């Protein structure tokens, strides 16, 4: 009887395991091709979005870099899922194979209930995972992206004659750095970025919201002083490490002005980065830089949602598809 009971329990456990495995989702279930490769011994997750039925047709690469934080590429909420790209990909997929690279040592798929604030994947102590923190660097992302570009352009369905790199927020800095360092890049889309560096995006809202009795901006300056005293330090915790903050805060404007390829700068007029992108445009006019074009979305914030005069954000008005449509118009013009 003992052996029968043991055999029954083992059978039940195996059956449950098989059922859970059968129900586990893969990137293909969400309409993406999934490739895992390596960089310096680290696993690298790639999702590819192509027009249905044209996965093997040779097209150029549209490489998109997402914003900051250790988020999985595919985030589910029970049976529902969040978009991998912030915009609909159908129009761009007519002309390109779209690729997005996962964050280092962050799972490709995770459910909302497994994630912390802002959909971040955290460790058991509620901190940013150490393996991620050690690699969450502009230098690492740039070198990894250049390695991935070489790999992708060797594939039979990628046309190497054109290469678009696009990025939003933190991704804008990475895409710009890739454009600086990779001669294969033919077009750069710089969205929601700050050409003077990340630290200025932190000072802006601190100044705006501080009151007479507060010292919000002063706290940011002290954080910056601490980071620059030990710029190589990987101080693992709940936010950026010193090294990450220092690398992402280096001003890009002088280098952006040296680019010869077509560049599209895209931003909302109510974003914290607006004064610096406006200054970028002023410099382009002064220097007669005709290869750099600016699309400003009036009355919208960092992710292109409208903002009223009181600062209330209308999350019902989704403008990302218009923004991506304007990117395509610029590319095809």
CATH class of the largest domain: Alpha Beta
Outline, from the CA principal axes?
globular
What topology, given as strand order, has the largest sheet? Answer: 1-2-6-3-8-9-10-11
Pairing-aware structural class of the strands and helices? alpha/beta
Q: Please report the total strand number as a whole number.
A: 11
Can you summarize the main beta sheet?
8 strands, mixed
Helix tally equals 11
How far apart are the first and last residues' alpha carbons, in Å? 78 Å
Order of helices and strands: HEEEEEHEEHHEHEHHHHEHEH
Percent range of helical residues: 25-40%
* CATH homologous group name of the largest domain: Alpha/Beta hydrolase fold, catalytic domain
Structural Rg: 22 Å
| Mean pLDDT across all amino acids | 92
Integer tally of domains: 2
Spans where pLDDT lies below 50 across 5 or more residues: 1-22
